[in-house]
Design goal:
- With 331 residues, the chain is an alpha/beta fold.
- It has a domain of 169 residues: NAD(P)-binding Rossmann-like Domain (Rossmann fold, 3-Layer(aba) Sandwich).
- It has 15 helices and 14 strands.
- The strands form 3 sheets. It has an 8-stranded parallel β-sheet, sandwiched between helices. Strands 7-10-12 form a 3-stranded mixed β-sheet.
- Strand 2, helix 2 and strand 3 form a beta-alpha-beta unit.
- The longest helix has 19 residues.
- The chain is globular, with a radius of gyration of 20 Å.
- The chain starts with a strand and ends with a helix.
Length: 331
């Protein structure tokens, strides 16, 4: 009997590759994986295509509804994630990157609505509606770019609300590898400083070690549709304060890292429009704290890794940071 088809959008990315690995290494490969990528001729795509008989690498253009419909045809499961394109953000600004990601998300969900005869489970990787939750106080483009697709999925007329799981994945601890998160060595105090525009007590949701954790959670979502369809799954392994994030890096890197708070205005002045984007995110999290990923939702709609029985399997943020060569990154 032919196994059902599971489509993974962005199969070579952090989320997609984690899910693909989890689905293939579970007790038995229950799915034929259709791994979507924008370039099947890339060395990474070729390696993936040759890595397992259950994987089909499929070239897809997220700007093309026709391309997406062809990729989805016959699928039982779709994992969908869109990207706030860094190159567009840096060269054209946040509004252009937001508009592009919105269009990709809507193309995906509209194509998914056309295969209702085979589709059983649609997993949408999304983020909170910070603008709506705070009545316009925090409009974070890389959060808001997910929301039009959310609204389409929630509209009963589109036939997907009871087939969808909304997955809100917490922050990556490994963001510390790159600007504007990367700690800076301050010679006067003899240590590295992690500087963010929020209080040291700001409680930040983290996915933990991304590579295993995302796949473990998604595999559990698919195994337990009775718990997850029509629900919001919290892709969060732990909450750490901003100061604890710095301490976690200290433990993992074996160098001293401290946290320092900066005003949003100074952060924006230093990092420009990147500082505005990231700074607003941290101010939003600071204001809502533990509710930043669940605010506005009924408790009956929220599913945690503990509810799914995988909390004990998740790897911590420190586990992930400990596998990175910080000597090269921090210099």
């Amino acid at each position: 009997m032919t196994p059902p088809i599971a489509v993974i959008i962005g199969a070579l990315g952090a989320q997609g590759s984690s899910i693909l690995s989890a689905l293939l290494t579970s007790n038995n490969p229950r799915y034929k994986i259709r791994a979507l990528t924008s370039n099947t001729a890339s060395p990474e795509a070729i390696r993936l295509a040759n890595s397992h008989p259950n994987i089909e690498v499929f070239q897809t253009d997220l700007s093309s509804p026709t391309s997406l419909l062809a990729a989805f045809t016959g699928a039982s499961v779709i994992f969908a994630n869109t990207v706030f394109k860094p190159d567009v953000f840096l060269t054209q600004g946040a509004a252009a990157a937001e508009e592009l990601e919105i269009s990709h998300g809507l193309n995906i969900v509209q194509a998914a609505s056309k295969i209702s005869s085979t589709l059983q489970h649609f997993i949408w990787s999304t983020l909170p509606d910070a603008d709506g939750l705070t009545e316009g106080k925090y409009k974070i483009p890389h959060f808001q770019s997910k929301i039009p697709a959310d609204k389409y999925l929630l509209d009963p007329e589109n036939g997907l609300v009871n087939k969808t799981t909304f997955l809100r994945i917490g922050m990556y601890g490994s963001n510390l590898m790159r600007d504007p998160y990367k700690p800076v060595y301050v010679k006067e105090v003899g240590k590295y400083i992690l500087t963010l525009p929020c209080s040291p007590l700001t409680l930040i949701p983290f996915i933990g070690e991304e590579t295993p954790n995302i796949g473990l959670i998604v595999e559990a979502i698919l195994r337990q549709p009775e718990r997850t369809l029509g629900k919001y799954v919290l892709g969060v392994a732990e909450h750490l304060t901003a100061a604890e994030w710095a301490s976690t890096l200290s433990n993992a890197s074996k160098v001293e890292v401290s946290f320092s708070e900066m005003t949003l205005e100074d952060y924006e002045g230093h990092w420009g429009h990147v500082g505005t984007e990231i700074g607003l995110m941290f101010k939003f999290i600071e204001e809502l704290q533990r509710d930043s990923y669940t605010g506005g939702l009924s408790s009956s709609l929220i599913v945690t890794p503990e509810d799914l029985g995988v909390q004990c399997l998740l790897h911590s943020t420190e586990d992930g940071l400990g596998k990175i060569n910080w000597e090269d990154i921090l210099g």
